[in-house]
Amino acid sequence: MKIILQKGDITEIAVDAIVNAANSSLMGGGGVDGAIHRKGGPGILEECKRIAARRGGCPTGEAVITTAGKLPARYVIHTVGPVWRGGQSGEPELLAACYRNSLQLAAEHGVRSIAFPNISTGVYRFPKEAAAEIAVRTVKECLSGLVSDLESVIFVCFDEENFEIYQRLVS
Ligand code: AR6
Question: Which of 87, 101, 140, 160 could form a disulfide with 63 if both were Cys (CB 3.0 to 4.6 A apart)?
Answer without folding.
Answer: 101
